[in-house]
Amino acid sequence: MNIRTLYFLILIIEIGFSLAGNHTGILVFKPLLMPLLIVVAFQSGIKSKWVFLALFFSLLGDVFLMFSGKNYFIYGLGSFLLAHIFYIFAFGIRQKLKILPSIFFVIYSAIFFFIISKKLDGGLFAPVLAYCLVLTAMGIFAWHKGIASQQLFFFGIGAILFIISDSLIAYNKFVNDIPLNSLWVMSTYGIAQFLILQGFIKAESDI
Question: How many CB atoms neighbour CB 100 within 10 A?
Fold first, then answer.
């Protein structure tokens, strides 16, 4: 069994434990996901330190968000904020950005933040706003990296799925419960991380 197959097997098992409400299973399997992608990145010859940092801080975010409590949520939020910043550097901050796709990400984020902002207390408003801004930038830079590298499927779809996953987490936490939320969150998140990494692997192999 190769590591990519093992990654998706672990992802499916983790989702199963999440749906069953088995916290022990989540604690065992969820922290295995990002290390497997780090191994894939290493074996594939990824040279960008930003990719490895993004995956590492995604791992930290995964771990923090396994636990309940406002502090753990803030730590998880901060970890993923850094992960998205590192992804932005990995995509390349000197890209020429096109208006139309950038506006799409901005409009979506503005509408979504408006929806959840009414449910945020004073201590969470600024951190969640900062996260939304960075997440929006990640989506924009990922899309343009996809165009520039001819890997739009991997970078573009991966970024959109990442945004969907984070949106589901926020909506479920601050607005209303989503049926089978762990299924939608983890499936979009797991596929997003895999697609983005595949984008880097294919982009570097084409150089």
Answer: 6
Largest CA distance in the chain: 49
pLDDT tens-digit map of 161-189: 999 999 999 999 999 999 999 999 999 99
pLDDT beyond 60 at 207 = no
Backbone CA torsion sign across 156, 160, 161, 162: positive
- Separation in Å, CA 106 to CA 155, 168, 170: 17, 17, 17
What global pTM score does this model have?
0.94
Dihedral, CA atoms, 21, 60, 71, 191, nearest 10 degrees?
-50
> Could you give phi then psi for residue 4, rounded to 5 degrees?
-65, -45
3-state percent helix, strand, coil for the chain, nearest multiple of 5: 85, 0, 15
Q: How many Å apart are CA 140 and CA 161, to the nearest integer?
A: 13
Handedness of CA 130, 124, 193, 169 (dihedral sign): negative
Sequence-ordered list of residues with C-beta below 8 angstroms from that of 8, at least 6 positions apart, any chain: 190, 194
Indicate whether 205 pLDDT > 80: no
Question: Which helix (H) or strand (E) element contains residue 140?
Answer: helix 122-149
CA 104 and chain centroid, separation: 18
Residues 138, 144 contacting (CB under 8 angstroms)? no
